[in-house]
Structures are given as C-alpha cells and as structure tokens.
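Recap from last week: sequence in, structure out.
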Amino acid sequence: MIIIKETYVLKKLLLQFKGKGKSIGFVPTMGALHNGHISLIKESLAKDDITVVSIFINPTQFNDSKDYDKYPITLESDIHLLDQVKTSILFLPPLNEIYPKGLQSSFNYDLGFLETILEGFYRPGHFQGVCQVVHKLLGIIEPANLFMGQKDYQQCMVVSKLIELYKIPANLNIVPTKREPTGLAMSSRNMRLSGDAKQKAVNIYKALNFIKDNITTYAIPELQTKAHEMLMNAGFQKIDYIEICDAKTLMPVKEYYGQTKLVALAAAFIEEVRLIDNLLLN
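Predicted structure tokens:
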C-alpha cells in the first residue's frame, strides 16, 4: 500500500494509472476503521483496478466542536487494516491540503429539501461540510466509482445530489449497512460506548425492525410512538427523530398505501453518543 499526503503527488500517480487504462475506486473515510469500512473497500477492490482510501477528519461537517474533539483517532490500526485487505493507496492529507484557504467559506451548495430535514435539521451546516470535503476529494481523485455505506442514508442522497449538480463523472455505489452479530450498525462512534451501552444500543435496530414488521398493522404515527417508547425504555437519553419516509425523496409519510418504497430512520443518544441507523421497510 502506498501512503500519500500531498495532493499533487496523488494526482500525478493516478494520472499514470489512468493512462494505462486502470479504473479508480474511491472510499472516503474519517478513520477509526471497522468492518463496515472494509466492506466498502472490498467492493471497490472487486470492481476497480486501483482503490484509493482517504482518511481525513473533516472539521467543517461537525456542527458540535465537542463531537469533533471526541472523534476517535486510530491511525496505526487503520493502516494495518488497510494493508491487510491490500488497499492500493491511502490518501492521508493534512488540513491545509484540503482547506488551503482556511475553513471559512461563503459558498453554499443548493441541497434544497434534503438539508432541512432529519440530519440536516438537527445538525445545521453538516451537509454543507460534507459537500465541501467530498467535492474537493472527488476533484483530486476523479474516480470512476465512489463507495459509501447505506448507514448514512441521507448523506448518500446528499452526495448523489452533489454529483448531479456538478455533473461529476463518478458512479455512486451504496453498500448495505454492516452490522454486529447483535444487529447494531457498525460505526466509529461505537468505540465511545461502554459494553453495557452497546448492548442497549441494539434496541435502535430492534425498534426499526418493529416498524418494518408492523407497517401494515399500525398507523404510522402510532408506530413512531411505540418505537420511541422502546428506545426510551431501553435506556436512550434523547431521541432526535424516528421518521418514516419515502425511500427515494426522504419526504416524511404519515400513511402507507402499500406501493411507495419506504425507509425508517432514527437518531438517538446513549451515553451522550449520538447513533443513527435506518432500515428499508418494503
């Protein structure tokens, strides 16, 4: 595995590969890697000749500075994991490589409705930061394929919108959520949970499955209320949302007629760690 920190070095090397007809796959990460990330990398390795993984903890997508400060850094084990699965290139840029003019930007990505709901509502500015860094990284790497996880469902939709807005010639591949044997969605944030909290956190997945299993039994508002109660009874401290939405648009739905493809999404706090998850319902 080649480790590169400078943008110009990476672009020069990738240009050589592309000149030889090699396809480039790209997996953006913020490190603290787990098997969810590895599943994305394996998809890229299977589809593309060269797989680039980036590790960059992007400050502009954290609307809470304390959350940024607490984000786990496990670079040594990350490099070991990437080497084990035969990642081609690790891009490890310092802050000034991605933001040479500083973090402040007056530019605004027109994300429309997507930025006003769910994660967009509870984390104002988050998706602007995501777009800044992904747009920059796609411009540097110019991959044929981009790989992201379904766990960040709304983020995948935002990046799809970014690709559409700027006609970026990269194909977005959304890889199913990787889960622990308990059902808990793999996440770097899980590292901050105690063993007891990890056991309780499984209930976010159980609540989503309850919604899926009962989508034709209860009215949607009642399903949301019952799922909310499940999480609070399990020891969650706060729930930002449990929402049932059109899977294609993320418009919330209040009635189910059996044809619209739906997704249930949740965000909740346990031990002051904010966890998100989602499940396609039909």
